[in-house]
Amino acid sequence: MDEKISLKYGEETVEIDVRGAASIETILPKPMEEITDLRKAFLRAVEQDAIGGVTLKDAVGPEDEVTIVVSDITRSWMHQDRVMPLLVEYLHDRIGVPYEKTVILIALGTHRKSTPEEMVKICSKEVCDKVRVVDHDCDADDLVYVGTTPLGTKVMMNPLVVGRKVIVMGGTVHHMMAGFGGGRKNLLPGVAGRETIRQNHERALDPEKAMSDVRVGCCKLTGNPIHEDMVEAAHLVHADFGINLVVAASGTHSGIFCGEMDAAWEASCEYQRKCYEIEVKEPADIVLCSSGGYPKDMNLYQGCKGMLNAMAGAEARRDHVLGLQVSRRGRRAGLFQLAETAAGGAPGRVAAGGLYHRGLHLLFDCRAAEQGRSCLHTDGVGSRDGKAHGYGGRKRRRRADRENRLYRQARLCASAGRQRSARLKFF
């Protein structure tokens, strides 16, 4: 049995000593096909294999003004910079759209603005030199009202997705609120107004109780009010074409699903589900987890998703769980301030206090921390902040160790990474 487990941490890995464990189960994604000729795969996806009967040439003409909506740097794992040159080239060379009629809109939602270097990483230098690349601003004065969803969300959108041909490019991945990321999510929250985003995100809360709605969560689409609201908002924009990327664990593209907006995205979700949904044989006493390395752990706002997956593998033994979350630069980033505002991060108070946006991530993370004996492993957060967030300190860790709950004679469940050491605090 291996004596160490390696977990991705930023651009390095962390090694965890697990000597004495009764058993260790390492969770890995299922084997996936990897695209070796990306250009060939892209051309097939936008032409003969286009989903829903809509090819890229059907969706866009040479006289059209085109907006390509693309995910921001927090989703750089999908390697849009490898696909974007192929898309811009196709629009220009095969359809005849002039470069000056094409703009790339980075779907920031409420995230910070992109740096010039990040724009290049998102789109490639080749593309940035040919077409205009701009950030969405959720607080801009020129947002356009496009309608109200059946759930009552007033939809304000970036003017660049109104009255133009809209192509949405994103990566499909499990999402803790929307069920799956990508697709319609690039429009709401991606290029929507702040108040629109707030109205959508508050639908993750139970309308009658200070808790999250049970219909909201990873892989949940049917009946999920956040997802359904996003779909309705996307329909108000009339997006013309969808490009959905699924990435293998190696970082290589595994699937490109293009065509009619909804149909192409749904096909990518089904493929993502088959590849990445893994059954845990038996709930573990201890779960060691990573958010997946940079950029997935660039802050706690993104990194809390790893803890939720960990708790799913230990739900039946939550009183005996130590969860380990690693976060690259887990600075406060507003989350710990929210925890303090909400009386120490109690989920009910977060919900009741109306901290719907970033607070929702905090709500889910606090709930994960409360479910088990949770510890945070990071180099960017002090113990005071960690404890305010709901993570256990050294005392909790020592108690678990004394009770033979930490490693000794325990069943471990962990995700794997490549070996390279990093020095971190553990509190």
Give a verbal description of the structure:
It is globular, with a radius of gyration of 22 Å. The protein has two domains: 171 residues, LarA, C-terminal domain (2-enoyl-CoA Hydratase, Chain A, domain 1), CATH 3.90.226.30; 239 residues, LarA, N-terminal domain (Rossmann fold). It contains 14 helices and 18 strands. The chain has 427 residues and is α/β, with parallel strands linked by helices. The strands form five sheets. Strands 3-17-14-15-16-18 form a six-stranded mixed β-sheet. Helix 3 crosses helix 4 and helix 9 runs parallel beside helix 12. Helices cover 31% and strands 21% of the residues. Strand 7 and strand 8 form a beta hairpin.
Q: What are the SSEs and their pairings?
A:
Layout: E1 4-9, E2 12-17, E3 23-27, H1 38-46, H2 56-59, E4 66-71, H3 80-95, E5 102-107, H4 116-123, H5 125-128, E6 132-135, E7 144-148, E8 154-157, E9 165-171, E10 174-175, E11 179-180, H6 194-201, H7 225-237, E12 241-247, E13 253-259, H8 261-276, E14 286-288, H9 300-312, E15 322-327, H10 335-341, H11 347-352, H12 358-371, E16 373-378, H13 383-388, H14 394-402, E17 411-415, E18 425-426
Parallel strand pairs: 3-17, 4-5, 4-9, 5-6, 9-12, 14-15, 14-17, 15-16
Antiparallel strand pairs: 1-2, 7-8, 10-11, 12-13, 16-18
Helix pairs in contact: 3-4, 9-12, 10-12
